[in-house]
Every structure is written in C-alpha cells, then in structure tokens.
Amino acid sequence: MPPPADIVKVAIEWPGAFPKLMEIDQKKPLSAIIKEVCEGWSLGSHETYALQIADATNFYITEKNRNDIKNGSILRLTTSPYQTALQLHERIQSSSMDAKLESLKDLANASRDITFAQEFINLDGISLLTQMVESGTERYQKLQKIMKPCFGDLLSFTLTAFVELMDHGIVSWDTFSVAFIKKIASFVNKTAMDTAVLQRSLAILESMVLNSQDLYHKVAQEITIGQLIPHLQGTDQDIQTYTIAVINALFLKAPEEKRQEMAHILAQKQLRSIILTNVIRSPTPINDEMAHQLYVLQVLNFNLLEDRMMTKMDPQDQAQRDIIFELRRIAFDVESEPNNGGSIEKRKSMYTRDYKKLGFINHVNPAVDFTQIPPGMLALDNMLYFAKHHQDAYIRIVLENSSREDKHECPFGRSSIELTKMLCEILKVGELPSENCHDFHPMFFTHDRSFEEFFCICIQLLNKTWKEMRATSEDFNKVMQVVREQIMRALSVKPNSLDQFKSRLQNLSYTEILKIRQSERMNQEDFQSRPILELREKIQPEIMELIKQQRLNRLCEGTCFRKISSRRRQDKFWYCRLSPNHKVLHYGDLEESPQGEVPHDSLQDKLPVADIKAVITGKDCPHMKEKGALKQNCEVLELAFSVLYESDEYLNFIAPDKHEYCVWTDGLNALLGKEMTSDYTKTDMDTLLSMEMKLRLLDLENIQIPEAPPPIPKEPSNYDFVYDCN
C-alpha cells in the first residue's frame, strides 16, 4: 500500500550527530515538526531552531515553501532565521578583521534566502551595511597596502550581501543617502579596484538608476561617461557588460532634452569605436547578457532619431527650405541666379522643372512632401547627408532618372521619403527595447553615422532594383516591397560591417529574389484546382490532430520559464510540465536553468486541468497590468499568457520566445477543447499539409490534373466481348 500523499520521508542532519530518517506529516504545523526533531536530539528551546534544505542554496523551510520538500530530501536542523540574522548582525560589527570577513561571507550567502533577508532587514541590517560602506571602509583603507586581498574581499562580501538583500524588493531604493551613492561611485571611478567590488558597484548603480528617478539625478552627478570608458577597455566581459548596462540605464532614464547631449558626449569619448574594438571584435565570444546590452544601446541610439522623424517641415521656414535649395544646387551644379532681368516667373519655372527631376511629389513647393510623419524631417536629413557625403552617387542617380521617360524615372525625393519611413519601421525607431531580445547588428557599431550610411546604401539599392524591374511609376509600391525583402534578408545574416551588408545586397538582385520566391512557392505547392482543394479538406483534420498531439507532447516535456525581476542578471526560473495522462500541470521554482527535462516528482505544485477556466494572453494578463509602470513593450506583451483557474486565481507565464508561447497557448487551448489559433499552428498546418499532398500526388508527377472529373464514356453498341485472362 502506497504511503499517504501528505507523508514525506526525509533525512535530517545536525552537526556532530548521525542523520535521522524521519517521516514528516505535511498536515502538522512546521513548529510541531521542529519541536519533535529537537526532542529527538534532546535540544531545548525549539523555537530558536529551523529546518533548511541541505544543498548549496541552504534555503529555510517555511509554511509557504514546505510543499517543495519531496521524498528523499536531505534537511538540516539549524538556528532560526531570526537567531541567525541576530548573530550575523553582531558578528559583522566585530573588531577582529578575520571574524568580520568570515561573518560577511556568511551574510552574503545567507542573504539569498528571502526568509533570512526579511529578518536581517527587520534588524535594520541594510542601514548597517550602508554605514559600513560609507565610513567603515575608510578605517581599513589604511591597511589596504599591507592587506589588499583582505580589504577587497571585505568590501566585496559587504556589497554582495547588500545586492542580494535589495534584490528581494523588500526595501525601496529611494532610502539611500548621497554619501552612500558617492562611496559606491568612488569604487567605480578608481582605476585599480578589486574586480568583484567593481562588478557589485556597477550593479548597484544600475539598479539605483532604473528604480528611482531621484537617484538617477544623484548618480548622474557622481558618474561620468569618461570614468566608465576605461572599464570597457579591459578583457573581463562581465565588467564590460555591467558598464554598458550602467550607460544604458543613464541613457534610458535621462530626460528627453538631455539625451542628445549625452549622445554627443558618447561620440566625443569614442564609445562606439571602443565597444567595437574591445567587445564586438574581441576574441571572447559575446554571451547573451552582453548581446542584450548591445541591443539596448543600439535601440537607444536609433531612438535619438525619433524627434526628427516626428517633426513636420514648416514650408515657411527659410532655413529648412535652404536645405532643399542645397539639394538642387548639388544635383545640377547651379549657383544662385542674380536677381535681374524680371525673370521671377522664369526662375519659378526652372525650380519646378528641377524639383520634378529630383523626384518630389509637389514640384512647386517640395517642402509639403516633408509634412508627413513619420518620417518628417529625418528624410530630408538623410537626403542632404547622401548628397554631401556620397555626392557622385547622388548626382548619378538624379541625372540618370531625369534623362529617362517620365513613367520610367525612379523619383529620388519620393523614394527617399518612403525608404526612410521603411528603415525606421525595420529598426523600430521610437520603440522601447525588449527585455528578452539579443538582436544587435555589429555593422551599426562600425560608423558614427550608421543610420545615414545605412540609408545611403539602401537608396542606391532602390535605384538599382528599380532599373532591374524596369519599373514605372505605377510599380512604386512593388519596388518598395522587393527592396524591403532585400534589406531584411541581408540583415538576417548579421553582417559585421556596412561593406559586408552592401556585398550581401549585391548578391540579392531582383532576379535572385524572384528565384528565392519561386523556390519558396514550389516548396509550398499551393495548388488551386478543385480536386486538390477537396483532397486538402479531407486531409486537414488528420493534420490538425497531429499538431494537437505534438503540442501536448511538448507540454509533457515541459518548459523552463523566467521570472522577470528588476535586474535581469539575477534571474529566477520555474518549470512547468503536463502530466503524461494530460490531467495535471506540475510546476515549481528552480535555482538555475535546467539542462534537460525536470522530473515530475521535483515539481511539488499541481494544477488539475479540470480546474482551468480560461487562457488569457497579452495585456489582459494580470502580471502585465501589474508591470504597467515598468513600460513593458509590445514584445513582452506578445510572450505573456495566464491560466485562470478556480477561485479566480492565476498562473502567470512569460514564454522564453515566440515558439514556446505558441506551443503553450495551443496546448492549453487543446486541453480545454478550444481551437488552436497561433501563427505556428498555421505554419505547421501549411508545411505538413504540403508534404502530405506531395506524398499522395507523387505518382501523378508531370500529369496534368483536370479541373473536373473525366466524362463517363458512352455505352458500347453491344456487350459481345470477352476478356481473355490467360
């Protein structure tokens, strides 16, 4: 007979004694279990003891997490969180350097546990640590020359304990003094600082900036870009990552009017070239966190273009009109005509003719073309940059098109405006960076004016594609679609430089795009004849059932989900999987991302599928409403879903990627008997249906399938015929 579900068999350790094998009744209060354990070892004052998981985490067992205990677990009897916090609170104030160092090391390890952290914080432990950082370190700096390693460790463990305690979100970041900020900033500003101390200090500054607008201003006064730059020139990728994270945080929280100023300082300090040399082209492979920080920096740089992108041109502004005059002057090599000869009408006619050659929609007043937002004035900026920095290419394009027939000319002005708008869409100018994205492009770190250079390459591509397509003005939108496809395909291979991007585009001519499209169409084989459509309809339910089984099998394998916290590098994970009989969802927290499947018995929390009422997605999820203040962007919203079960409670998910999101929402909808509507279901349906159709039609290759069934032949004139079967 199997043991009752509430009975768990465990081993319990106590220093200096043999471990005890014990059955724990999960229905009994935890205090009663601890009392029983203490009595077994003849220990009094059981209220001063607690149970811990005997592994690397040393997490305390509480009424909230006691269900995580599973059969075969090894527990440890230890002092209660309050007693431990009290002891460490006293020990870290010891006058002995060795005792202080050992206690701070213990504190850094213990602070990862939220139960201990709460008790230590209640003893005003955070204030004690900040005081030690503000004033205590100075006492030991005198000893630094003779005890440098010890000093570094002392400070490192102090800051580590501080970071771990703050990560629990119990204490507000707004409570810290200017003296503490100055001290942390001083560790970053020093050229020769212990690596661990520097890493923790950068992490603290990043969290301060991201979590408090008031602290942003204080940190910005203490830290300059020039002081951060040397940390990027080392070889430690973790330090480089934290440094870029601080720069990103300062950039992100800076008021709108200060961002351009900050970008100018970054350019002066040659941040881009330093990152390119020491990070992107470093022999050390770029890890995910560094890739994310580079992506964030890339997005923030491109978002500086938003102001110009959303600024309409004022047709009455002479300075802005002068830019258009400059485009005309460079293209046609004309000087300002003298105001003589009563030729105002003649000059107007000449301007109109030239503006038509430049490809503006409004030939009389081209300024009107730039009143559309987006791209607004950004398009005019790009055109002027192209005309000044790639003058030969600019003049060639304008003159080539002005010599063609009207219907075959590629309008430079209109093309530039639409292309600028397209590039802003591709690079998502104006959108906040995603928390999960690592999609940075090395080529944008190779030039100080990377967006403008990107435009210059693409406008020449557009003109080339227009000629290859022999397009007319009616084909403008078709040409833009082809150009967009060429750009997206070239970007997908992540070229390392703008020259590589240009070379990739050379290989993606219009003819090549047609071949790719034809190949993709052949792979899809989407026949439209009635017999084929009837066969598709017949096969479709079988394929849908196959997709459903695949989704449920994936849910049975399970997925590791990430709990989003204020600091991405302190990720917490949890795992969820469906039971093999499809009746229960098993889930539970993990310390780190697993390498393979997590067994059911290690996931103590359960949710019966029968209790699930609905699956909610996107902004309707409760955890997305809670995070509204953090300005969650559309990408995070697209990965969020929640399971509503009885008593109006929710199990909240944020999928690691779009594929897992589709798998889980499809699988959960299938369990509820609802339709699977994700993009991946449609893609899988098309792929599998196409393959099945090809297999079934294999014997009919090169045979024309008629639209209608062949007619039944007339009856024979007589039936006097015999088949000789011999």
From TrEMBL:
It is found in: Cytoplasm; Membrane. Residues 319-491 form the ELMO domain. It holds the Pfam family ELMO_ARM. Transmembrane segments: none annotated. One of its GO terms (molecular function) is SH3 domain binding. Keywords: Apoptosis, Cytoplasm, Membrane, Phagocytosis, Phosphoprotein, SH3-binding. One of its GO terms (cellular component) is cytoplasm. PROSITE patterns: ELMO (PS51335). It comes from the Eukaryota. InterPro entries: ARM-like, ARM-type_fold, ELMO_ARM, ELMO_dom, ELMO_domain-containing, PH-like_dom_sf, PH_domain. GO terms for biological process: actin filament organization; apoptotic process; cell motility; phagocytosis. PANTHER family: ENGULFMENT AND CELL MOTILITY, ENGULFMENT AND CELL MOTILITY PROTEIN 1. Involved in cytoskeletal rearrangements required for phagocytosis of apoptotic cells and cell motility. Acts in association with DOCK1 and CRK. Was initially proposed to be required in complex with DOCK1 to activate Rac Rho small GTPases. May enhance the guanine nucleotide exchange factor (GEF) activity of DOCK1. This is Engulfment and cell motility 1.
